[in-house]
Design goal:
heterodimer; A: alpha+beta; Rossmann fold; OB fold (Dihydrolipoamide Acetyltransferase, E2P); 2 domains; 5-stranded antiparallel beta sheet; about 25% helix; elongated; B: mainly alpha; MetI-like fold; about 70% helix
Chain lengths: ~375, ~270
């Protein structure tokens, strides 16, 4: 088991695209680490550079304190599961699982042993003689995991591990994957474009954009306190409200014709800011409210299952707010929105970075 | 249903029958003539006998030429498949500037190299190499002629082998040789089988190359010997020729059936699509 240290890493493609652009990252021993970002942000390239399938142009990659930047993929002690699983179609499940050992010329008896043991761990018993084509999607994924585990790498790399499963199976596989990683305690890095998957699985998340790191933190930090408007936009199943606002002197910000409380101690009065507030952290009231609030009219309510996303028109600005099921106000109803100061985030308007004064407040 | 529709259908089926007959008659001849006591150039119900078969087996060169044919064609098919596999893998995986132009150039040249146009230079070259009247020389020339097209076809098969198979094997520490042997070749096996059969069939029917390069009658393959199957008077030996034609067609048919039953399927399922 080992940690991964990445320093000043850049991977530049022959056409000049800097897919990974000067990245510093430390993945701790035994950590479940997510690389999250939209398509083309360089997360897969970063994973492939760690695996050695892409050559780093600058910087170093260290696995278990050993510099592996110029080491062949097979000698880095990494195991990888590909997005398409890449199970060898002409080999049986058992041959697939033990192929890493066959490459190292491990005796056939030992290989058979490893195959049955690993298959047992991943509930693949009874499937050892099948060909990949005779397995379901979930089983194929577990065979690919079994093969990676059997290779006894120090680090496990997963490229979009759940993207090829259908929605219901994905949830099952997610739970399975998290439990497996806990049980094995193996340092695992996985790539995903699905923020819900990253939040659910990872111990820490690195949010990437255009080859650069935009935020690094626990799922809770990344969700509740996005470091910039890019992350704020990307994380969360309902998009965060990002509204132009102005800091008022009395610990509030004026936004969308009303005001919200905010930690404004270090921000000059009248400063133009972007106010970020998650729909989940806004409270909708149909009656009268005291203190700073936004007032408006309900436009639509979208049912999300246990809650509804209500869109409110506040002085011409549309604001999303979630309410528990069966409490949706009718369209056209006048409502008031309130939020605790700790949930109202202020971003610098032109750079989109979170204002430093906010650091003090509790997550 | 209008009358014109019915007439059109009738006309269509009559046409189909005529075309079928056109192709069926030679087949019927090759099935009946070998066992007919008085074989001619027409198709009729045979007067059953095995006399022709016996005569063919006793013919001084007939059986021997089959062995020559097998020798030349097996060598050619194996060489074409082996070289095409290596070349197409390299061409498919290594980025070379002007690779596609090179491939099209090869394909274009291949039709010239085995074609009549290149026969004189090839003859001179083989003469200087001392490979005239050599079955190995014939196999060599045919391999050279078939390789470009074989590489071209096989490259498509290798291109279709997903890269993640190889990358996966690489991460597990497999060397290039191991990747080729354990992963790429098995996955591309239907393609290799196709190329092997294609090369065999092409060289089996090739008349021009052995006709020009082989002088001794005891080294001639079946395709060349067939045109010399005449009797003392110089007319076609109708007792030997039909049996010989039948025998000559068997290997190709057998090969097709064999390969189709073994490789007439594609592997799938390793990649989740």
């Amino acid at each position: 088991m080992a940690g991964i240290d990445i320093e000043g890493l850049a991977t530049v493609y022959p056409n000049g695209v800097r897919a990974v652009d000067g990245l510093d990252l430390h993945v701790a021993d035994g950590e479940f680490f997510a690389l999250l970002g939209p398509s083309g942000c360089g997360k897969t390239t970063l994973l492939r550079t760690i695996a050695g399938l892409e050559t780093a142009t600058e910087g170093t990659v260290r696995i278990d304190a050993a510099d592996v930047t110029r080491v062949e993929p097979g000698k880095r002690g990494v195991a990888m599961v590909f997005q398409d699983y890449a199970l060898f179609p002409h080999m049986s499940v058992s041959e697939n699982i033990t192929y890493p050992l066959k490459v190292r010329r491990v005796a056939a008896a030992t290989r058979a042993d490893v195959a049955s043991r690993t298959a047992g761990e991943l509930s693949l018993d009874g499937l050892l003689e099948r060909k990949p084509g005779q397995l379901s999607g979930g089983q194929q994924q577990r065979v690919a995991l079994a093969r990676a585990i059997a290779s006894e790498g120090k680090v496990l790399l997963l490229d979009e591990p759940l993207s090829n499963l259908d929605a219901r199976l994905r949830l099952e596989a997610r739970t399975f994957l998290k439990k497996l990683q806990r049980d094995l305690g193996i340092t695992t890095v996985f790539v995903t474009h699905d923020q819900a998957e990253a939040l659910a699985l990872a111990d820490r998340i690195a949010v990437m954009e255009s080859g650069k790191l935009r935020q690094l933190g626990s799922p809770r930090e990344v969700f509740a306190r996005p470091a910039n408007t890019f992350v704020a936009n990307f994380i969360g199943s309902t998009p965060m409200n990002l509204l132009p606002g102005k800091v008022l002197g009395d610990g509030t910000v004026s936004v969308a014709g009303g005001s919200l409380p905010a930690a404004t101690s270090s921000t000059p009065t009248d400063a133009e800011v972007t106010v970020g507030i998650r729909p989940e952290y806004l409270t909708l009231s149909t009656g009268d409210v005291n203190g700073p609030a936004l007032r408006g009219e309900v436009v639509v309510a979208e049912n999300l299952g246990t809650q509804s996303l209500v869109t409110v028109d506040c002085a011409g600005t549309l604001i999303g707010v979630t309410v528990p099921e069966e409490t949706e106000p009718a369209p056209g109803a006048p409502v008031a929105l309130t939020a605790p100061a700790s949930r109202v985030l202020l971003y610098i308007q032109d750079t989109g970075e979170l204002l430093a004064a906010e650091q003090a407040s509790v997550v | 249903m209008t009358t014109s529709f019915v007439l059109r259908r009738i006309g269509f089926y009559v046409l189909i029958c005529a075309i079928t007959l056109f192709f069926a008659v030679p087949m019927l001849w090759i099935a009946s003539a070998p066992f007919d006591a008085s074989p001619g150039l027409g198709v009729h119900w045979p007067d059953w006998t095995l006399e022709n078969v016996r005569k063919t087996l006793d013919h001084p060169y007939a059986m021997h030429s089959m062995v020559n044919s097998l020798l030349i064609c097996v060598t050619t098919a194996v060489a074409v498949t082996a070289f095409a596999a290596l070349a197409s893998y390299a061409l498919s995986r290594v980025r070379i500037p002007g690779r596609d132009a090179l491939l099209y150039g090869l394909l274009l040249l291949s039709s010239v190299v085995t074609g009549t146009a290149a026969m004189v230079p090839i003859f001179v070259m083989m003469f200087q190499l001392g490979l005239i009247d050599s079955r190995f020389g014939v196999a060599l020339v045919m391999t050279g002629g078939l390789l470009p097209a074989a590489i071209f076809i096989l490259k498509d098969f290798v291109d279709a082998v997903p890269k993640s198979y190889e990358e996966s094997a690489r991460v597990f520490g497999a060397s290039t040789g191991q990747i080729l042997r354990d992963v790429v070749l098995p996955v591309a096996r239907p393609g290799l089988a196709t190329i092997m059969v294609w090369a065999f069939v092409n060289s089996w029917g090739n008349f021009l190359v052995p006709f020009l390069l082989i002088r001794s009658i005891d080294k001639q393959p079946g395709a060349v010997l067939m045109q010399t199957l005449t009797d003392e008077g110089g007319s076609v030996n109708l007792q030997v020729l039909p049996v010989f034609s039948l025998l000559f067609s068997i290997p190709v048919v057998v090969l097709y059936l064999l390969v189709n039953s073994r490789y007439g399927f594609r592997f799938h399922g390793g990649i989740k699509s």
